[in-house]
Amino acid sequence: MSSASLSGSSMQAPRQRPASKANVVGIVIGAIIFVAALTLAAWVGLQLV
Asked: pLDDT digits over 1-49, tens only?
């Protein structure tokens, strides 16, 4: 899903610099949320077992 959203955003703004601060911050925040979600899912899974 993340690859599709990234390609969609790049298609919407083709003139935007790929290394802009906004994109970097968005990618970092997305990565942190993704890792947090995986950690939470793993923790819940361990609690259920």
From this structure: 444 444 444 455 555 555 688 888 999 999 999 999 999 999 999 998 7
Domain that holds residue 32: 19-49
Q: Report yes or no on 6 lying in a domain.
A: no
* Assigned domain for 12 exists: no
Q: Is the pTM above the cut of 0.85?
A: no
3-class SS string, the chain? CHHHHHHHHHHHCCCCCCCCHHHHHHHHHHHHHHHHHHHHHHHHHHHHC
Instruction: Tell me the CA distances in angstroms from 14 to 1, 20, 30, one per residue in order.
Output: 20, 13, 21
